[in-house]
Amino acid sequence: MTDALSTLPADDILSQALAWKNVGREVALATVISTWGSAPRPAGSQLAIDETGQMVGSVSGGCVEGAVIQEALEIIGSGIPKTLEFGISNDEAWEVGLACGGKINVFVEKLD
Amino acid sequence: MKTALLEELQQARLAKRQVVLATNLNSGEQNLLYPFENEDNSEITEAARNALRYDKPATFESEDGPVFLNIFNPQLRLFVVGAVHIAQMLVPMAASADYDVTVIDPRRSFGSDFRFPNVTLDNRWPDEAFADLGIDRRSAIVTLTHDAKLDDPELQCALKSDAFYIGALGSGRTHAKRQQRLLGAGFSDAQFARIHGPIGLDIGAKSPAEIAISIMAEMTAVLRQKDA
Predict the structure, then answer these.
(1) Higher-scoring residue by pLDDT: B153, A111
(2) Which of these, B19, B49, B172, B185, could form a disulfide with B35 (CB 3.0-4.6 Å)?
(3) B154 and B202 within one domain
(4) Cβ separation B10–A15 shorter than 8 A
(5) Last residue within a domain, chosen from B72, B95, B113
């Protein structure tokens, strides 16, 4: 399996998620499911997070990853998937993240 | 997501299958769809087909709630027949646009590593090479030799494949002769119409690099625009 997967890109997010799982770590996957306005990463973009908070991939180019990781660690605990909404007005842009003013929805699930 | 499902998804990607991961956003239930591998006409299969075709994930509103269709298309591939000067310009452009490029030319002095570093070279005859290249919906085929001996067998194979783009270098006159030969070989007008010839968007390209740009532009238009 590992050999066969070497023909996917070396930085393949799902391969990394599986590799973490195979060494016994808990893993969550986050996927951008919809975007409005100027969102930095398109729908389908993914982020994998392990139980220690390590991550590969991106859902926003750095703006909301911190918040997604927090939620992901909770979802690793609960096992219940969840859709996170990041709709950022210009006022709060500096607080939570999407300085560009876009909005994104991110689906987060545990790999089990 | 179940680990077993993720493993199946990775295997499908390795096998270069066009696969869609369908996730019910309310329940979290998931399954894999292979919409080009069956004749199913259900709305969700059609939606999955379109998502793959336009390389764009989508959300399908089902009776059981919204279903996110995430797409996993294999890498785009470009097969260039004829290791000629235009090919030397086209290959790096296509590689930059994330195509996996193969150059096919049985004439070894043309298709050499010296002229084409860092690209897959295939020195077999085109029709022989084609039998095991697994041309699919994510493949483009460009013939650049304007030598009927090399181009025609390739084009015949191309027309029997699912390639999203087939282009042939040559003037209007060359293309008309090509049409006669291929119709003579039993292809229909509709089949022949899949061949873009003379190749490339009409941007007045003169130099090999400019012609390569016009070819890249036409391939991109066919790939991305619904009615190109």
Answers:
(1) A111
(2) B49
(3) yes
(4) yes
(5) B72
Whether pLDDT at B52 is above 70: yes
Is the confidence at residue B219, as pLDDT, over 50?
Answer: yes
Residues B214 and B104 in one domain: yes
Tell me what the pLDDT averaged over chain A comes to. Answer: 84
Domain holding B158, by residue range, is: 77-224
Give the Cα separation of B83 and B91 in Å (integer): 10
Residues of A in contact with B14 (CB under 8 A): 4-5, 7-8
Please name the helix (run of DSSP H) or strand (run of DSSP E) that holds residue A4, with its range, or none: helix A2-5
Q: Which residue of A has its CA nearest to B74?
A: A8
Q: Could you read off the pLDDT of B71-100 as tens digits, one per residue?
A: 999 999 999 999 999 999 999 999 999 899
Looking at the structure, do residues B182 and B145 belong to the same domain, yes or no?
yes
Phi, psi of A29 (to 5 degrees): -120, 135
A48, A20 contact by CB (below 8 A): yes
Residues of B in contact with A110 (CB under 8 A): 1
- The residue-averaged pLDDT of B118-133 equals 86
What residue ranges do the domains of chain A occupy?
A: 2-111
Task: Check which CATH number belongs to the domain holding B201 and give it.
Answer: 3.40.50.720
Integer Cα distance of B46 and B214 in angstroms: 32
What pLDDT is attached to residue B41? 92
How far does the CA of residue B14 sit from the closest CA of chain A (Å)?
Answer: 7
Of B174, B123, B122, B121, nearest to B152 by C-alpha is B174
